[in-house]
């Protein structure tokens, strides 16, 4: 049994649109689970020895937990906003800590080197100061006023623009990103990363999007995001150690990494340590 | 003589496999290393981990005389000092940001790495030139059994019927595999080199078979 506050959190365990009666065998934090539709067409998740686990269906995904979640799955208000297109991107399996996957999502400084000529390009490498806070009421990490020059910020963008971002971390393995929406100034495109922890060093990453984009074919939208995440995977599977170090000393942050610093601090404060390394080796 | 001690020279790669402007991973008993050759041809070896976010530096890229991490572009000198952090182009990185380096030397077409201050120069194999390297999914005893002789780390002579007498340098890897550098007599012609390469491949297959049988029994 996992002695960690993360046991009582919600995690994505599959796409609702792909679910059938036969169901899907998967793993949550080391425990084999089965996700299936019951006879009423509702999602059902069972753990070892047929133990019935909590279920919620939100943002195209089925969510479950090994423990007892004290709250509903975190809100994404944009999911109820008319005019948005919701995109289930699918799944990318990554041999890394689920926490490393989230931290990478919060990072913009790697864009010119890992997503070259898509999300960033040299010599536009500077990360300007931005604001980071832990919002106590919501108990979420927020980064705002994040700006970065991007050659092709989205499938709907043509030519380079300075994109503005906001990031939030509402759950230990989930992050929601808001970014400038090229066809609709004043609105934000929403890209979320839902990470299913299979083990401390293995995860399934489920990206999900809520966009103002009626024109780009679905296949192109999915392909664009998958390209980005496959580039990230080549990094995530080659970081040492695989687990995310939560104690200072093992890795060196700079001003550009303030979101990651706040994320690590927030994880540690909540004893969210599944996938973390606590003592510097 | 070579041993598992970390202050001795380890033949980690062949010179011909590391052209100018490239980086590659290598391994010594002291851990994984990033091996790279600058644009001007200087060799360098460092710990295979960027201290910023733990990314393997051997996946990085070489520009000029520096090795850059592929994740955020932090670049390092041959002496291991961080020279540039692209997210903060106007910042001079503090001297404390550095990667541990290793001694590296090139001799007779082989790249040698040592952790501490090794005594003397790496060995030279007079009359031999490197042909190629290969990795066997087999450990020391399986390779010795296949070769019919002790697969000594300082190198051993071996000859297959119809092939020239070659010299093999086996280096144990972290994974339990063995990296083998194949040296041939300097005066070998093309057909003899091909025969030597095939002989080394057959030795590798035999060692892997013995290793697999040993694991199965």
Describe this structure in words.
- The complex is a heterodimer of chains A (281) and B (217).
- Chain A is built from four helices and 17 strands.
- By secondary structure, chain A is an alpha+beta fold.
- In chain A, strands 8, 9, 10, 11, 12, 13, 14 and 15 form an eight-stranded antiparallel beta sheet that branches. In chain A, strands 2-3-4-5 form a four-stranded antiparallel beta sheet, with no helix packed on it. A three-stranded antiparallel beta sheet of chain A has the order 1-7-6, with no helix packed on it.
- In chain A, strand 13 (174-180) and strand 14 form a beta hairpin.
- The two termini of chain A are 25 Å apart.
- Chain B is of the alpha+beta class and 217 residues long.
- Chain B has two helices and 14 strands.
- At the A-B interface, helix 2 of A face loops of B.
Give the averaged pLDDT of chain B, no decimals: 93
Proportion of residues in helical segments of chain A: 10-25%
Globally, the shape of chain A reads: globular
The tally of beta strands of chain B, per DSSP, is 14
Beta strand % of chain B: 25-35%
Low-confidence segments of chain A, ≥5 residues, pLDDT <50?
none
- Mean pLDDT figure of chain A: 94
Largest sheet properties of chain B: 6 strands, antiparallel
| Proportion in helices of chain B | 10-25%
Rg result of chain B:
19 Å
The largest beta-sheet of chain B arranges its strands as 1-10-9-4-3-2
Number of helices of chain A: 4
> Approximately what portion of the residues of chain A adopt beta-strand conformation?
25-35%
Question: How would you spell out the order of helices and strands of chain B?
Answer: EEEEEEEEEEEHEEEH
Query: From the helix content, strand content and strand pairing of chain A, which structural class follows?
Result: alpha+beta
What's the main sheet of chain A like? 8 strands, antiparallel
Low-confidence stretches of chain B: none
Task: Give the beta-strand count of chain A.
Answer: 17
Distance between the termini of chain A: 25 Å
Helix/strand class of chain B: alpha+beta
Oligomer: heterodimer
